[in-house]
Amino acid sequence: xENFEKLVSEQPLVKQMQRREEVFWVNxxxxxxxxxxxxxxxxxxxxxxxxxxxxxxxxLIEKYFPETKPLHGLIESPLVEINAMKDYLNExxxxxxxxxxxxxxxxxxxxAGSVKARGGIYEVLNYTEKLARxxxxxxxxxxxxxxxxEHGFPGEGENYEKLGEEEVxxxxxxxxxQVGSTGNLGLSIGIISAVLGYKVIVHMSADAKQxxxxxxxxxGVVVKEYEGDYGEAxxxxxxxxxxxxxxxxxxxxNSRTLFLGYATAGERIKKQFHDKGIVIDEEHPLFVYIPCxxxxxxxxxxxxxxxxxxxxxxxxxxxxxxxxxMLLGMAIGLNHEISVQDIGLSGxxxxxxxxxxxxxxxxxxxxxxxFSGGMTVRDYKLYEYMRDLLAQEDIFxxxxxxxxxxxxxxxxxxPELQEYIRKNGLENKMQGAVHVVWATGGSLVPEDIxxxxxxxxxxx
Length: 460
Hints:
44% of the residues lie in helices and 12% in strands. It has 19 helices and 11 strands. The strands form 2 sheets. It has a 7-stranded mixed sheet, with helices on both faces. A 4-stranded parallel sheet has the order 6-5-4-7, with helices on both faces. Strand 5, helix 9 and strand 6 form a beta-alpha-beta unit. Helix 1 packs across helix 2.
């Protein structure tokens, strides 16, 4: 790219990234929450609108996904304190972590077993609501339960209400949902779309795991595979979808709807903290560490957390050393106009869900003044953290989800992070701090693949 040598010479961080070093970057453009919202295109009302839509769909979700019955059709994950893991991180890595450490188990979200169940499922429901209303299938106040079908069309002897379902499903079957994915987003969208009756095509990059492709196909989803990376899969998928007037493309890079689905996590975790008697305020700060690929999930979650906790929450993204696309775009100031390949990185990583070369420009713009910083992690540590958590807490996560543990390990060992704590007046508040590692996936990993992961040891 133009002026590349100048860019590198002015940014020592880029040279470190080129050497595949683990780095940390503090966002110098972060402002107060109030200031960050002044020119933001989204607001708390948009998140509330998404919350209400999910509540309207809850009866349908509960009906067709029995695992959501305990929460009456809401798709939400546990928030679990992991004291043994905290002690082990302090002992093994010298983390010296104060406060309390929690795991947000989006790895165990119903239906899709990953954080993508938040955004992906929400966007499909949002599109379905619009179609159903535009074509007269849903009147004001009508039950959304008729918009689904567990085993295809109604059979003989089923009740009259099911006739409405047959008509709706036949209608939705005339539409196709398409998405580009490294795996988990495809799973969430594929599973919910198939239940509602859509045809589904998932465009997957070379980095996607084979078991995820097979699981999708078992749900009747068409999987198209590409030799290139995530960006190529998205590009091809968008082109194919644009050529079909009855096709809807879900764009993880630029979707406002997907982003708002993730953002609903803020109010949900606020209630979980309240139920545990945990106070989050400026005297009791919240640190959140989230694995980052293209940026949609960590960006949306961070936005939702900011609406709720404002300046009391500090959000950090974690990326692989070979694919730090968001960190690179934000640190250089070029956002999505630069890719990791531009600085000589491969974009290839064992963290399949994070194997993205170019970040979302939409997310970068919203996060510019909002998120606290980013860091990178070597692939071998993903498996180390995975084994550590399994041994200490008997919780399994897929390797890409374990990237988030780099946050609490780095916190007291990294000079830039320590400077961030000083600059934000947090030194005397860390004893009362709450740390959340956001687990992005893992519960759907087949047993044989789990065993393979557990025994994978990479060179440092």
